[in-house]
Amino acid sequence: MSVETTVEAPKATKKEALFSKKNRRALFDPLDDNNPITVQVLGICSALAVTVQVKPAMIMAVGLTFVAAFSSLIIALIRDSIPGRIRMIVQLIIVALLVTLVDQVLKAYMFDVSKKLSVFVGLIITNCIVMGRLEAFAMAQKPWPAFLDGIGNGLGYGIILVVVAVFREVFGAGTLLGFKVIPQWFYDHGYVNNGLMVLPPAALFLIGIYIWWQRSRNTKLVNVS
Amino acid sequence: MKFIRRLVDSVKPHFEKGGKFEKLHPAFEALETFLFVPEATNSDGVHVRDAMDLKRTMITVVIALVPCLLFGMWNVGHQHYLAYGMEMPLMDTFMFGFWKVLPIVIVSYAVGLGAEFVFAVLKGHPVSEGYLVTGLLIPLTLPVTIPLWMVALAAIFCTILGKEIFGGTGMNFMNPALLARAFLFFAFPAFMSGDIWNDLSPEAGHQIIDAYTGATNLVTFDKDYTLLNSVGDMFWGFEKGSIGETSVFACLLGALILIITGVGSWRIIVASFLGAWLMGSLFNVLAPADIPTHAMHTPAYYHWLMGGFAFGAVFMATDPVSAAQTETGKWIYGLLIGIFTVLLRVVNPAYPEAVMLSILLMNVFAPLIDHIVIEQHIKKRLRRA
To answer: Would you state the pLDDT for residue B40?
Structure first.
């Protein structure tokens, strides 16, 4: 039953530059003006869960960037042949394929990190960012911009993750990427690691403060949502 | 007085519009109106005029807190000398606690007000008097052994994240002082629970007595409620606990002041006590008969006396900003605070100081309660029409 629908690259009459203004926006907007976490408010759940330490957060960010970019690319390639009614299922299958890939690679080469991320790698499937961008962008765009959009959103997500994780690891455990950054002198004089930072609510506080800071700097965003 | 007035007037032009320190106007205004009656009055429209402005409300609460503060200071010394088995005259006991508690109060006020002043100057809104109460409530809810930098951190946290980002005094949906305590409770659990309630700084020539135990009643009753302090001790406050919360008597004195002046809602106080009693009685009925020392057997009225329940119900739950506003809502709000407090205390020993969590939880629900009460009222009126 496989219908051979050859997806030919749409022959644009005017060849668009690889990094035209529009494409650059697809790549860079999600970093700040259209950040998936702080503006679109997608993918909050994993941002609370994997930001206790910087290393898992970075790996999670890379994993999500990979999945978001390539699922966007694939979906954009076959977007014309996906029947509208079952498009979600098709998207899910492609995302699931990529997530399984990431999961297996992590298990093979970084087992300890894979254990720390545990179920959250598998849950990239349900990460609102991936599905949200597929629905909102890749289904209606050419492959190249869709791919850039996937990378941009993955990186935008990653920025927040790493920023939050840096604060949580430094104040919660006194380390950064596993290295001690708060000198022993502090501990000798009564400094104590902040236990709240290890708990998920701390990520919520930090994301809230980030949004506050972002909007006071970038007035375009005020009253967007 | 004249001298201060002249001093204030002489520097005033610098802080007016166009002056050198125009940006600092909110800070200056706060100081000036703190010292003198403000000269600016509204000139247009109709205004309700009442002697009971925000400043007087806040000062009334501070006065109501004084019995708790004084008793708390004495009790800090009392518990200290008790642990060393020493008999000391009243004044020495009080002064010991005074010098232990004073730094905490000063840090709380200085840092919290500092944060508020900075914020007021940055945002250009006037400094409000709300922190006068918060700044005193924070130390009273903390153990005396708390390191001062933690007090400072909590004061900053509750002022900025609990109040200022929502728009300052009157806009906070949670009680800032309790938020400060909750912050410390989760951030530094080792300093907020366990055997930290007593100041055990060494006494020359004395050893800690053998029978000494650092556990508070809230921890004790969970294992065996018959080991609690006597009812009298718990009522008058001769027990371990946070600085200001131990004496139910002092809290009731404060409650009297709040109710007579109309600053605190008697409905909330009565409803909270009632709720705790109801839940305690329910547990008495459900308690396993074969374990006579089980926490569920604790007489219901013990819950009024143990821990910080009275303090929370009188001073925290009645916070006019974060409590329910409607009369029926206040009953529901208070009842639920009492019920949740006892429920958490008995069922979940991990959070011994349940009154803090219950009040914060009900703070969140207060607008919902009000909404339902008002909707019901409208429905009833419509049916009658």
So the answer is: 64
- On whether residue A12 sits in a domain, the answer given is no
Range of the domain at A157: 50-219
For A67, residues 6+ apart whose C-beta sits below 8 A from its C-beta are A95, A98, A99, A102, A124, A130, A154
Q: What is the mean pLDDT of residues A35-55?
A: 83
- Return the SS3 of B299: coil
Q: Which of residues 97-156 of B touch A (CB under 8 A)?
A: 147, 149-150
Domain positions in chain B = 2-26, 54-384
Cβ neighbours for B249, distance < 8 A, ≥ 6 positions apart: B71, B235, B236, B237
Tens digits of per-residue pLDDT, A147-181?
998 999 889 989 999 999 999 998 888 888 878 88
CB pairs under 8 A between A and B: 23
Using the beta-carbon criterion (under 8 Å), do A190 and B149 form an inter-chain contact? yes
Q: Nearest by CB to B183, which of A190, A191, A196? A: A196
Asked if residue A9 is part of any domain, the answer here is no
Q: What is the pLDDT of residues B189-238, one digit of tens each?
A: 888 877 777 777 777 777 777 767 767 777 777 777 777 778 888 888 88
**Which of B147, B165, B189 shows the shortest C-beta gap to A195?**
B189
Q: Which residues make Cβ contacts (< 8 Å) with residue B367, sequence separation at least 6?
A: B173
CB contacts of A197 in chain B (<8 Å) are: 187
Candidates A120, A210, A201; CA nearest to A163 is: A210
- Determine contact: A197 vs chain B, CB below 8 A: yes
> B351 in contact with A at a CB cutoff of 8 Å?
no
Residue A8 is assigned to a structural domain of this protein: no
B:291-320 residues touching chain A, CB 8 A cutoff: none
Q: Please give the tally of structural domains in chain A.
A: 1
A30 located within any domain: no
The dihedral over CA atoms of B274, B228, B68, B303, expressed in degrees to the nearest 10, equals -10
**DSSP structural state of residue B83:** H
**Residue B7: what pLDDT?**
79
pTM for this entry: 0.83
Most confident region among A18-22, B21-25, B254-258 by mean pLDDT: B254-258
